[in-house]
Each structure stands twice: as C-alpha cells, then as structure tokens.
Amino acid sequence: MKQITLTVSSRDYTITLDDDFAEIFERDWQKFMKGKKFIEPRELINAFVEKSYESYTNLRVIEGVTKDIEEKLKLENK
To answer: How far is it, in rounded angstroms, from Cα 77 to Cα 14?
Structure first.
C-alpha cells in the first residue's frame, strides 16, 4: 500500500492505494496537474465529469462490440 497526498484548495488529503494502482494514479495525476501544486474544486469536478463521460463512452463501445460478437456466434452456431 502506498500513501499519496493530494492538495485541493490548499488543503492536503492523503489517500492510500494499492502499489500497482498508485503508480498509475500518480502518473495520471501529475499529467492532469501539469506542474501545478494544487487544484481548485471546480477543476476537480470538471475532470471527474470528463473521466466519467470517458468511462461511459468506453462502456457503450464495449457493449456494442459484445453484442456484435454474440450475434456472429449465434449465426455460426445455426
């Protein structure tokens, strides 16, 4: 487990993450922060909405691909 400190509106928050995920999270966080030391709540909310929409979009794509595969398997089994 690894502890990471995030600063939002000049207040520190410490989170604990599994080591493997912590590496990915730190990389993504640094990329998102672009050298800034802290983030304002509005920026964090906007980023969360963007990430959530990205997840939603990816899920829709996966569901579409899954449906296509299932349909092809049905045709092959006839």
So the answer is: 54
Q: What pTM, to 2 d.p., does this model score?
A: 0.66
What 8-state DSSP symbol labels residue 2?
E
> Residue 78 has what DSSP assignment?
-
For CA atoms 49, 36, 31, 14, give the dihedral sign.
negative
Q: Which helix (H) or strand (E) holds 5?
A: strand 2-8
Q: Token digits for 62?
A: 């996966």
Q: What is the rounded distance in angstroms from the CA atom of residue 51 to the CA atom of residue 45?
A: 10
How large is the average pLDDT for residues 2-24? Answer: 94
Q: What is the DSSP string of 8-52?
A: ETTEEEEEEE-HHHHHHHHHHHHHHHTT-S-B-HHHHHHHHHHHH
